Structure formats: C-alpha cells, structure tokens
Predict the 3D structure of the following.
Amino acid sequence: MSGVAHQRLSQERKQWRKDHPFGYVAKPKTNSDGSVDMMHWQCRIPGKKGTIWEEGLYPVDLRFSTDYPALPPVARFPAGFFHPNIYDDGKVCLSILNPEQSWQPSISVKQILVGIAELLTEPKNSDAAQTNAYEIYKRKDKSLYERKVRVQARKYAESSHENVKPGQ
C-alpha cells in the first residue's frame, strides 16, 4: 500500500471521527480476520429530510487506489441502484470523482459523501449514466420517478439502520 495513500486515509479517518455530518457513516472495512482495509471504506448516506430520499440510509463503497489522493476513489452504490447519475453497476457519475473534470487531491471523504448526497436530490441531466432512470427523470414523469425512489428508500430504510453505531 502506498505510504502517501495510507497516511492520507489515516488522517481522513481521524478527521471524520472528530467532525462528520449527522447521520453519515464512513469507516474502513474490517476484514474477516479482524484487519482493517484502509483502501476500502464502507459508508452510509442518509436521504435528505423533506425529500423523496429521506427514508433511506444508502450504502456507498469507496475504493481508493495506491495513487490516492492524486486520483479519486471509485464510489459505488449497490448494483441496480435507481438514479440518473448512477451506472447500472452502481458506480457514481459525479464530476468531483473524475480526474479529468473536477477532482482535486484536496477533496476530502466528507466532501465526496456530501457531494454524492446532493447528487441524489439534484440529478445532473448533463451527466446521465443510467438510461432507464434518466429517461423517466428527463421526460418529467415525476410520479413514476418519485414512486421508484420511494420504493428504493424503503428498501434501504429496512436493513440500513442495523449494525450502525453512533459516531461512525
């Protein structure tokens, strides 16, 4: 593992424990042998209050390369996640996660997760990644779009609050 990547991720973890948005979870994955994988973080993003997303606590994996922070992590929801800017395999399409667009090494895990949360409620029509969700959103079939998002929110509300401890 790259010394620079590991050092930065250790600093990120320490900073996250001191200051993170309420309801968010971000922590390195614990392997079956009890070791910690600093290059793979398991995160949860709460749906914004007052929106169709509010019931859910959405799982997002962040995978960091040894070139981090020169290169951004890959962020993924579970495969099949319904959103215009999420590929069918779950990969998040967001400019701050693209090294050829807005990625900068100073962007923190906190900023990434807040950016992804904003993307949920404010899809970008210029950056469509998922044809089905994009077409429904683009043609402004609001009731169908909202219905699909609410079903998904309930799905992640049922199982997402288990095993989540405060301060993660």
